[in-house]
Write a structure and sequence with these properties.
With 310 residues, the chain is α+β, with helices and mostly antiparallel strands. Helix content is 40%, strand content 10%. The chain has a four-stranded mixed β-sheet, with helices on both faces.
């Protein structure tokens, strides 16, 4: 693995920790928007491209929103190889489902970041929302990208469903504020902890939140207002990776999601939504985590199971 420093690729771990051994995720660099009244980035069919990994939960959020908003004809997707090695995400097409870079024929994702800004200092992450007209990155922060896709292209597609409706934003924000640190990032806090204390604190936060979610799902089909919202989209990508990968690889093994009766029912129901089901590639997910994190799995052995987890 590595990162860009002053535009140059530097090999080394990008997993940062604080003085107590807690995993510390740095912020993203590009954070612009697409809007009809934006001076630079206005909605247009085929102008913008989405770079993703099927393995990455953050990128999968964007894929789900792309399909929900019927953006497939307007927003091309480029899928990286599931392995992230010394040169980061690659456009190798040697794994089924990896598309390569159909726009510029690049070999590695970091080259796209260099193309956007020659002196950039940044982790090279997915998803990337790319503008082919100005040849730069509009945004590389998943929570911002899904909100862009939720609204920016509605006039073009005619899809008016709002997954971040004004009437329920406080409730959605409240759930997001709990789920991100405890669940979405919580599994990484467990897996990448460098002290026992940091790991146990992260695990306590994670399972306390999962307990709360299971209790909520005993009475509700969705997190907010009995309709699919951004909060569900942000949560489901972690839950669908939990029993498959995190339970073993990140030591989140107090309980499986399948052992939570109400939360497991919620996961299975959401997986039946076409946009969620079509945005998940479990072969990419397993390969990425077990093969890429050499410090956690030095022999890079990818387990054959579980035989079934849904």
């Amino acid at each position: 693995m590595g990162q860009l420093i002053d535009g140059q690729w530097v090999v080394g771990s990008i997993v940062r920790s604080d003085k107590k051994g807690n995993f510390d995720r740095p912020p993203s660099v590009f954070s612009d928007v697409i809007a009809a009244d934006h001076p630079r980035y206005q909605p247009a069919s085929g102008r913008y491209h989405l770079y993703v990994s099927y393995a990455c939960p953050w990128a999968t959020r964007a894929l789900i929103m792309r399909e929900l908003m019927n953006l497939a004809p307007h927003l091309p997707v480029h899928v990286v190889h599931p392995d992230i090695l010394e040169k980061g995400w690659s456009f190798d097409t040697g794994f089924t489902g990896a598309t390569g870079d159909g726009l510029y024929g690049l070999s590695y994702l970091y080259e796209l970041y260099q193309k956007a800004q020659s002196d950039v200092t940044s982790r090279v992450t997915v998803p990337v929302l790319w503008d082919s007209q100005t040849q730069t990155i509009v945004n590389n922060e998943s929570q911002q990208i899904i909100r862009i896709l939720n609204t920016a292209f509605a006039d073009m597609t005619g899809v008016r469903t709002d997954y971040y409706p004004a009437a329920h934003r406080k409730a959605i924000d409240d759930w997001n504020a709990q789920i991100y640190p405890c669940v979405n990032n919580g599994v990484y806090r467990c897996g990448f902890a460098k002290t026992q204390e940091a790991y146990e604190a992260a695990a306590a936060d994670l399972f306390a939140c999962l307990d709360k979610l299971d209790d909520h799902c005993a009475r509700h089909d969705y997190l907010v207002a009995d309709q699919l919202t951004e909060a569900d989209i942000r949560l489901i990508v972690t839950l669908l990776r939990f029993d498959l990968v995190y339970y073993v690889h990140f030591k989140t093994n107090l309980r499986k999601i399948s052992e939570y009766p109400h939360l497991f029912r919620y996961v299975k129901a959401l997986y039946e939504i076409k946009a969620i089901r079509n945005s998940h590639n479990f072969a990419h997910i397993k390969r990425h985590y077990y093969y890429s994190h050499e410090h956690l799995n030095p022999y890079r052995i990818v387990p054959v199971g579980p035989a079934s987890f849904l």
